Amino acid sequence: MGESIVITSGKGGVGKTTTTANIGTALASMDKKVVVIDGDTGLRNLDVLMGLENRVVFTLVDVIEKRCRLKQALIKDKRFNNLYLLPTAQTRDKNDINIKDMLLVVNELKEEFDYVIIDCPAGIEQGFENAVVGADRAIVVVNPELTSVRDADRVIGKLDSKGLDRHEVIVNRMNYEMTRNGDMLSVDDIIECLAIKLIGIVPDDRKVTISTNKGEPIVLDEKSVAGLAFKNIARRIMGEEVPYASLDGSSGSETGFFASLRKIFKGI
Amino acid sequence: MDLFKMFSSKVSSKDIASDRLKLILIHDRSDFSPDLLEMIKCDLLKVISNYAEVDSGEIEVRLTKTEEYEGNSPALIASIPIKKIKR
């Protein structure tokens, strides 16, 4: 029996779909059997981030409305043959799916896969309800911004009230330079306010845009800092203890004369 | 950068964000709207007026930030200056 994880956030545009694609790909690269589900009916994008948009034939809605079997709707990934995508419909909406049907689909997939990762849409309406109903645990994605943290707090409250209390947070798009200059909420500020466990910090990385352009998740790029961060998150999901890279980003991201000077002044 | 900051008294935008965030979350979590606080204030005033003469212009009713007092739940703080006790 596998484990189902919902990737949620409340606010849109914080990186839920990117996180889903990358964690799914990273887990598959570590030999886990993985399926990623697009929960954003009507505004699907997970297929695009995975580079599988040309292979969509049947969708989640077709499965629920019994126009095909579940296996027929699963699309095998280009790179890993133990990774699958369950796309959703683009021309329907979130109210075309109900929690009962969604739960059946997730439970059926858990029989077959080690990890079922559900990409939750923004908002706290029907799409959210459908995405969380079958989840064993939740990962909340936040950006270091007031609006995102506030919405995440609402979502965490909702998850708690549903009894889904296995939840952790990813701080995505961390800009270490702005943090150092005192212009961005720190990871500590965020986890203290939300009172939630941290599972990963993903640095702001321009390469993410490039990887989206190509339809290749950033974890496939060995040199990318964001890719490495997602790989570490995948390992933590599997229960491994992975130490955090220095929280102020002083390792790797900055070298040279001024960096050493700053280290001397800070005494590190 | 850090040295420079030590000599300037300017508050960083991160600190502003952090303070605002704490207040926003208190209000979101407790479902306390400014209207509700105003209603509490009026009712408190009514009750206390039975016993004392108060300065209605100086009354302050607010929710605390989490770190102000022990524990995680916000507290309601009312500051009501009394002019004269009624006998």
Overall description:
The complex is a heterodimer of chains A (268) and B (87). Chain A has 268 residues and is of the alpha/beta class. Chain A has 12 helices and 8 strands. Chain A has an 8-stranded mixed sheet, sandwiched between helices. In chain A, a hairpin with a 6-residue loop joins strand 3 (75-76) and strand 4. In chain A, helix 1 crosses helix 11 (225-237). Chain A is globular, with a radius of gyration of 19 Å. The N and C termini of chain A lie far apart (47 Å). Mean pLDDT of chain A is 93; it is low at 248-255. Chain B has 87 residues and is an alpha+beta fold. Chain B is elongated. Chain B has helices spanning 2-7, 13-30, 34-49, and strands spanning 52-54, 60-63, 76-79, 82-85. In chain B, 46% of the residues lie in helices and 17% in strands. The mean pLDDT of chain B is 78. Classes of the chains: A alpha/beta (268), B alpha+beta (87). Chain A binds chain B through residues 145-146, 149-150, 153-154, 157, 179-186, 189, 193, 195, 262, 265-266, and chain B through 1-3, 5, 12-15, 17-18, 20-22, 24-25, 28-29, 72.
Structural class of chain A, by secondary structure, is alpha/beta
Mean pLDDT of chain A: 93
Number of strands of chain A: 8
Structural class of chain B: alpha+beta
Question: Could you provide a short overview of the structure?
Answer:
The complex is a heterodimer of chains A (268) and B (87). Chain A is of the alpha/beta class and 268 residues long.
